[in-house]
C-alpha cells in the first residue's frame, strides 16, 4: 500500500464503501465515530457560549439560596469549572488515542455533564441532557474500542445511538400527548405570537391572526406526530437509513423553530450520523 | 472478496511513528487526526467475532434507556408519574437525589407551563387593599423589566409578567437571563408556576426575598402537589 496515498487522504476523499480500495480496509471507524460525536457535543456546548458567559456573571452577582439544591450545586464556580471541564473533556476524548487515557477523558465528560444537569444554574437546559447521553455513549465506546471487533462494535454503537435518539424523541413526544399541544396553544404562545425567528416572522407577515392560529395547530400536531413516529421507527431502521432520518429530523426541528436549539441537537445530529459509518456488508 | 477485517494489513505496511515523525509535524491538526484514525490500531481484529467478555456497559445503558422509555410511556396513563414529572419541573420533588435521578429523562417541550412574576404576594385580600394609583401614579409602565415582547403584560395589580415556557418553568427564577430580568432590582418577588398535562395541574408558589449576602432566599410557599 502506498504510504503517500494514505497520507494524502482526507475526510472528503474517503469512500467508506469501496472495499476494493485498500485504504477503506484500514479506516478506524470507531475512532472516527467517537470524534464525530465529540465534535457534536463540543459545538452543542459552545453554541450558547454567550448565554453561559452572561450566566456566569449573573450567578456570581445574584446568588439564590435555595434549600432544594445542595450548597455545592448552587456554587457558580462549580458551574464554571464543570462547563470548562466538559468542553475540554470532549476535546481530549477526540484527541487521545491511548485507550485508558481516552476512557478517563470520556469519564470526565460524563462527570462534568452530570454536574451541569444537576446544577441550579443549568438544570433546565436540555443541552446538557443530550450531551450527557452522548458522553455516556462515548465512555462506553471508548471502553470497548480496544476489545471488540471494529465492525461489530460499529453495529452496536450505531444501534445504541439509535436507541438513545428514539428515547429522546419519545421524551419530547410523551410530554406533548396532551390537549394543549394538540390544539397548538402552547407552541402558538411560545413561537407564533412574538418569537423573532425567520420562520415565524415570515408567517406573521404573511397571515392574519386567525390563519396564524390555524397554522400553529397544524405545526404543533406535525411536531407531535413527527416525534411520536420518529421514536417508534428510528431504532428499528437499518443504521444508514436511521442515520439519514435522524439527521434530517433533528436538523429540521432546529431549523424550523429555534436557532438556539442546535445546542441541544448538535450532539444528537452527530450521534445519528454514526450510522453512516456502519458497513453495509457487515449488516447483512 | 475477503472480508475487510479478515484481511487486516500488517503493521509493517504502514509508516512507522519514527519514520513519520518529522513529516507529522508538518501536517495540519486534522490531517494528523485523520491519519491516526486510519492507521492500523493495536486492537484485536479476531476475524469478525466479538471478544468473549460480556459488554456490561452496553447492556447497562440499554437497560437505563428501557427504564426511561417505560417511565415515559406510562406517564400519560399514570397520574402519579405525571404529577412526579411536573413536580420535577417545579423543583418540588421530595428528595433532591430522586429529582437528580430523573434528570437524564429527556423532557423537551413537555406539558403546558405558564409562569407569573409578581411584585406583590399572590394573596387576593392583600391585592384588594392596594390602590393601583399608588403603584402607578403617572401611568407609566409598571415594570420596565417586562419590556421583552415575550412577556405578556397583565393588568392585574402586582403582576409583572406572564408567559408560557417550553419546560422547567422554575427556570423563570433560576436561569441567568430571567434572574437578571426579575431580580436585579433587589426587591421581593413572587413566582407562580403552573403546569398542566392531560387534566392534571401542578401549581407552585415561591417567594424570593432579598438576602443580606447580596442574593435572594428562595422560600417555597406551598408544598401540595
Molecular structure report:
The complex is a heterodimer of chains A (284) and B (225). Chain A is mostly helical and 284 residues long. In chain A, 72% of the residues lie in helices and 1% in strands. Chain A has 15 helices and one strand; from the N terminus they run H-H-H-H-E-H-H-H-H-H-H-H-H-H-H-H. The radius of gyration of chain A is 21 Å and the shape is globular. In chain A, 51% of the residues are buried. With 225 residues, chain B is of the alpha+beta class. Chain B contains nine helices and five strands; from the N terminus they run αααααβααβααβββ. Chain B has helices spanning 17-26, 29-38, 56-74, 79-89, 96-102, 124-128, 132-135, 171-174, 176-183; strands at residues 112-118, 159-165, 189-197, 200-210, 216-220. In chain B, strands 2-1-3-4-5 form a five-stranded antiparallel sheet, covered by helices on one side. In chain B, a hairpin with a 5-residue loop joins strand 4 (200-210) and strand 5. Chain B is elongated, with a radius of gyration of 29 Å. Chains A and B meet through helix 1, helix 2, helix 3, helix 4 and strand 1 of A and helix 2, helix 3, helix 5, strand 2 and helix 8 of B.
Total strand segments of chain B:
5
Radius of gyration of chain A using CA atoms only: 21 Å
Strand ordering within the main sheet of chain B? 2-1-3-4-5
Amount of beta strand of chain B: 15-25%
Q: Mind summarizing the main beta sheet of chain B?
A: 5 strands, antiparallel
% residues in beta strands of chain A: under 5%
Judged by helices, strands and strand pairing, the structural class of chain A is: mainly alpha
The unreliable regions of chain A are: 1-24
Q: How many strand units of chain A?
A: 1
- Number of distinct helices of chain B: 9
**What is the H-and-E element order of chain A?**
HHHHEHHHHHHHHHHH
The shape of chain B is: elongated
Query: What would you call the shape of chain A?
Result: globular
Secondary structure category of chain B:
alpha+beta
Measured between the Cα atoms of the first and last residue of chain B, the distance is 65 Å
**What is the straight-line distance between the termini of chain A?**
28 Å
Radius of gyration of chain B: 29 Å
Amino acid at each position: 500500500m502506498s504510504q503517500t496515498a494514505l497520507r494524502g487522504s482526507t475526510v472528503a476523499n474517503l469512500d467508506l464503501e469501496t472495499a476494493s480500495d485498500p485504504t477503506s480496509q484500514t479506516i478506524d471507524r470507531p475512532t472516527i465515530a467517537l470524534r464525530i460525536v465529540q465534535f457534536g457535543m463540543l459545538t452543542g456546548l459552545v453554541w450558547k457560549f454567550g448565554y453561559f458567559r452572561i450566566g456566569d456573571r449573573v450567578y456570581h452577582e445574584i446568588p439564590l439560596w435555595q434549600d432544594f439544591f445542595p450548597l455545592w450545586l448552587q456554587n457558580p464556580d462549580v458551574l464554571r469549572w464543570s462547563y470548562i471541564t466538559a468542553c475540554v473533556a470532549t476535546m481530549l476524548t477526540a484527541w487521545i488515542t491511548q485507550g485508558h487515557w481516552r476512557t478517563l477523558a470520556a469519564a470526565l465528560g460524563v462527570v462534568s455533564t452530570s454536574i451541569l444537569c444537576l446544577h441550579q444554574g443549568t438544570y433546565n437546559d436540555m443541552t446538557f441532557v443530550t450531551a450527557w447521553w452522548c458522553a455516556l455513549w462515548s465512555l462506553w465506546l471508548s471502553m470497548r474500542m480496544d476489545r471488540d471487533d471494529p465492525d461489530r462494535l460499529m453495529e452496536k454503537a450505531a444501534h445504541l445511538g439509535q436507541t438513545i435518539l428514539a428515547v429522546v424523541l419519545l421524551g419530547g413526544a410523551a410530554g406533548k400527548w396532551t390537549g394543549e399541544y394538540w390544539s397548538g396553544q402552547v407552541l402558538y404562545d411560545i413561537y407564533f405570537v412574538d418569537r423573532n425567528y425567520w420562520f415565524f416572522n415570515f408567517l406573521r407577515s404573511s397571515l392574519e391572526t386567525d390563519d396564524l392560529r390555524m397554522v400553529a395547530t397544524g405545526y404543533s400536531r406535525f411536531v407531535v406526530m413527527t416525534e411520536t413516529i420518529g421514536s417508534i421507527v428510528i431504532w428499528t431502521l437499518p443504521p444508514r437509513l436511521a442515520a439519514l432520518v435522524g439527521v434530517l429530523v433533528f436538523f429540521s426541528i432546529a431549523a424550523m423553530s429555534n436557532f438556539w436549539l442546535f445546542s441541544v441537537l448538535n450532539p444528537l445530529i452527530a450521534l445519528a450520523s454514526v450510522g453512516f459509518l456502519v458497513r453495509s456488508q457487515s449488516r447483512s | 472478496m475477503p472480508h475487510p477485517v479478515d484481511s487486516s494489513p500488517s503493521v509493517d505496511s504502514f509508516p512507522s511513528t519514527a519514520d513519520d515523525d518529522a513529516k507529522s509535524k508538518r501536517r495540519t491538526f486534522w490531517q494528523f487526526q485523520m491519519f491516526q484514525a486510519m492507521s492500523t490500531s493495536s486492537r484485536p481484529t479476531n476475524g469478525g467475532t466479538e471478544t468473549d467478555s460480556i459488554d456490561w456497559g452496553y447492556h447497562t445503558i440499554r437497560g437505563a434507556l428501557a427504564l426511561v422509555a417505560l417511565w415515559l410511556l406510562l406517564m400519560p396513563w399514570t397520574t402519579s408519574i405525571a404529577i412526579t414529572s411536573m413536580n420535577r419541573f417545579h423543583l418540588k420533588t421530595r428528595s433532591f437525589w430522586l429529582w437528580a435521578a430523573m434528570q437524564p429523562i429527556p423532557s423537551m417541550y413537555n406539558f403546558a407551563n405558564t409562569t407569573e412574576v409578581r411584585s406583590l404576594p399572590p394573596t387576593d385580600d392583600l391585592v384588594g387593599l392596594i390602590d393601583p394609583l399608588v403603584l402607578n401614579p403617572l401611568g407609566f409602565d409598571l415594570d420596565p423589566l417586562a419590556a421583552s415582547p415575550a412577556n405578556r403584560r397583565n393588568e392585574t395589580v402586582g403582576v409583572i409578567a406572564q408567559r408560557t415556557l417550553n419546560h422547567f418553568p422554575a427556570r423563570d427564577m433560576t436561569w441567568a437571563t430571567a434572574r437578571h430580568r426579575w431580580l436585579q432590582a433587589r426587591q421581593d418577588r413572587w413566582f407562580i408556576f403552573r403546569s398542566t398535562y392531560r387534566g392534571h395541574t401542578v401549581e407552585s408558589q415561591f417567594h424570593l426575598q432579598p438576602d443580606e449576602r447580596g442574593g435572594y432566599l428562595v422560600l417555597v410557599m406551598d408544598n401540595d402537589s
